[in-house]
Design goal:
The chain contains six helices and no strands. It is an all-alpha fold. It has one domain. It is extended and about 65 Å long.
Length: about 160
């Protein structure tokens, strides 16, 4: 939702910026992935917490574990709040009821299926989002009339790739 908001505010520059950095990150990870795997296998390191345990002492391992848990809980809470707003707005129900529904669904499908079901739902969500995007583009194009009208109705700076 923050990405959509940033693109709405600044135009295409934020989206292009994200694409460039994702591609750069993927290339960099591809370059060093083999070394990371070999080092992890050699020293039996399977997480960032394991790394700090092997490299430093017990205090650092516990500190990194706490920070990691806080980050994961914050990330999960952010996702649940995002889902809650969508449910609340789209279905027009009370925010707290939507919060209970989104939290319950997230905990239930994760507890029942684990990572496998989480990956499957991400796959399905992408397909649904892509289909809705195509439908929105079709109806949006009919509403606007032409690409020329779209470009003329955009706020100034929305097509500037350096606007963000």
């Amino acid at each position: 939702m923050t990405t959509s908001s940033a693109i709405y505010e600044s135009g295409i520059s934020f989206g292009i910026n994200n694409i460039i950095w994702y591609v750069f990150g993927a290339i960099l990870l591809g370059i060093i992935a083999k070394k990371i795997f070999e080092t992890g296998e050699k020293y039996q390191i399977y997480s960032i917490v394991d790394f700090f345990k092997k490299r430093f002492d017990r205090k650092n391992e516990v500190l990194v574990l706490i920070v990691q848990l806080l980050l994961l809980v914050t990330w999960a809470a952010t996702q649940i709040i995002g889902i809650t707003y969508l449910i609340s707005i789209l279905v027009d129900i009370d925010y707290y009821l939507a919060l209970g529904i989104s939290t319950g669904i997230t905990i239930l499908y994760t507890a029942i299926g684990g990572l496998k079901i989480d990956i499957i739902t991400d796959f399905l969500q992408f397909r649904i989002i892509f289909l809705v995007f195509i439908i929105m583009a079709f109806f949006g194009y009919q509403h606007i009339g032409s690409i020329n009208n779209l470009i003329h109705n955009l706020p100034s700076g929305h097509l500037n790739i350096f606007n963000f």
